[in-house]
Write a structure and sequence with these properties.
The protein is α+β, with helices and mostly antiparallel strands. The chain contains six helices and eight strands, in the order E-H-H-E-E-E-E-E-E-E-H-H-H-H. It has a four-stranded antiparallel beta sheet, with no helix packed on it. Helix 5 packs across helix 6. The chain starts with 7 loop residues before the first strand and ends with a helix.
């Protein structure tokens, strides 16, 4: 029985994987392409107590991401974004914030894979000879055509995307399911064409 897929990549692993500079990773994260996470002990943010997995703002820790490589490896974090929230919370206790090291910064594997899919970055995997992606996109396309031929289009594109995620889950026993964004990117042209929407 094999190990389950990776859940996180460190920021350093991401730079090695993509052959880019840490400043590029920080820039893409700041632009909302993915999130940089870390884990923290319990801190107080006003009336809230926050601990565990949180989102970091690269611009708050900019010296750590210098392109020239001369920056420090650790900085003080004064505000955080708890997972599932859109607002940023100021750390009030300890008043000086908490230290965070580049070595402890993580990116969710699903967000790494989604970024690679969106930018058509070739990723070699061990699931098959010459495979460039862990997902059976050709099989999904066949399943998509068959579904539309047999039952027509559902009421919404989101329903179609969800059905294709279910197809991946059924085909791989839940082990290799692309995120909805990657599926939507492939379903959208078909959806627009059949619905007669503009490009």
């Amino acid at each position: 029985m094999g190990l389950p897929p990776r859940v996180y990549f460190t920021v350093h692993e991401v730079t090695a994987r993509w052959g880019c500079n840490i400043a590029d990773v920080a820039g893409w994260a700041d632009a909302g392409r993915f999130r940089i996470l870390t884990g923290i002990p319990a801190v107080r943010c006003g009336d809230d107590v926050v601990a565990g997995k949180v989102v970091l703002s690269p611009m708050d820790l900019l010296p750590l991401f210098r392109r020239c490589g001369t920056g420090p490896t650790e900085g003080m974090m004064r505000r955080i974004q708890p997972i599932g929230r859109q607002d940023w919370l100021l750390i009030t206790d300890p008043a000086c914030g908490i230290p965070v090291a580049v070595a402890d910064m993580l990116v969710l594997a699903e967000e790494v894979h989604a970024f690679e899919e969106e930018n058509e970055m070739v990723r070699r995997v061990t699931s098959g000879p010459g495979a460039a992606t862990p997902y059976d996109w050709e099989g999904m396309t066949v399943a998509l055509i068959h579904r539309i031929h047999e039952r027509g289009l559902p009421a919404t594109q989101a329903e179609l995307v969800a059905e294709m995620q279910d197809w991946f889950a059924d085909q791989t026993d839940g082990r290799k399911i692309p995120d909805s964004r990657s599926i939507r990117r492939r379903v959208t042209p078909v959806w627009k064409k059949l619905r007669g929407d503009g490009a």
